[in-house]
Amino acid sequence: MPPNMSTIRQLSFSDAVWLLSTFLSGTGWLFVTAGAAGLALPTFIWMYILFTLMTILMVIYVVRTRQFPAYRLQLVFMLSVVIMLLGTTIRVVENQNTNFLTLIFIGAVVQIVVMLFWILLIGSEPGTLAYYLSGQSDALVGAFIPQVGGPYGATTAGDLYFGVNPASTSTHLRHHISGITAPDHVLRVRAHYPYEATSPEEVSFVKHEVMEVLNNQGNWWKVLKADGRIGMAPSNYLAIVM
């Protein structure tokens, strides 16, 4: 059976960035672990190694669930701590002239570079290249491809180029107006911060409010609130409900 083309489109450039960087980080962690296993290192070094693994798994979870707004500060803090711990590990073993030292050094340097890159991605602001690379928004399309149909990017020329169907919004709308139960695959988001609308096109919402997404292209998403109101909401305030 041929592959589903809609599934292929879901593997974006940001996915490739995270996959590659996660592979490099995991490889570096294995190098450090293998090197530590061959040396008589203090117990606290193994605690460092365990904390590094927990941080990598946490990053994978947040990237997989796209819950960047909820965990941005925690991740930046954890990654910063890991970088300091890796530096401490290098200083502890630097006087041991063995092949295991080489493994630890290479693994630690690779991890430090990846962690710095992750801090850049996770801590980036909307509209930047790093924000696009992190997968938090289709920022690059919104910035470099002209929009069609309004300042909030409800439809962009990039939508047509990448095969996004602008009519999908009206399908959700027909379900809502006719009273038909929405399909199970409807995308919903939860607000991690309150927001007050600044124009008639936008909607206000409170923290933890759950809304249905009608169009998720660009930095501003069209959402449907529980009371039936429809409007634009800033995507960096929202997290997808799994």
Overview of the structural elements:
It comes from Entomophthora muscae. Keywords: Membrane, Transmembrane. This is Transmembrane osmosensor, variant 3. By secondary structure, this protein is an alpha+beta fold. The protein is built from nine helices and seven strands. It has helices spanning 5-9, 13-37, 43-65, 68-93, 99-122, 129-133, 139-144, 157-161, 168-178, and strands spanning 147-148, 155-156, 188-191, 210-215, 220-224, 230-234, 238-240. The strands form two sheets. It has a five-stranded antiparallel sheet with strand order 6-5-4-3-7. Helix 2 runs antiparallel to helix 5 (99-122), helix 3 packs antiparallel against helix 4 (68-93) and helix 4 packs antiparallel against helix 5 (99-122).
Could you name the key traits of this structure?
242 residues, alpha+beta, two-stranded antiparallel ribbon, 9 helices, disordered N terminus, transmembrane, membrane
Summarize the structure.
With 242 residues, the protein is an alpha+beta fold. It contains 9 helices and 7 strands; from the N terminus they run αααααααββααβββββ.
Layout: helices, strands, pairs:
Elements: H1 5-9, H2 13-37, H3 43-65, H4 68-93, H5 99-122, H6 129-133, H7 139-144, E1 147-148, E2 155-156, H8 157-161, H9 168-178, E3 188-191, E4 210-215, E5 220-224, E6 230-234, E7 238-240
Antiparallel strand pairs: 1-2, 3-4, 3-7, 4-5, 5-6
Helix pairs in contact: 2-3, 2-5, 3-4, 4-5
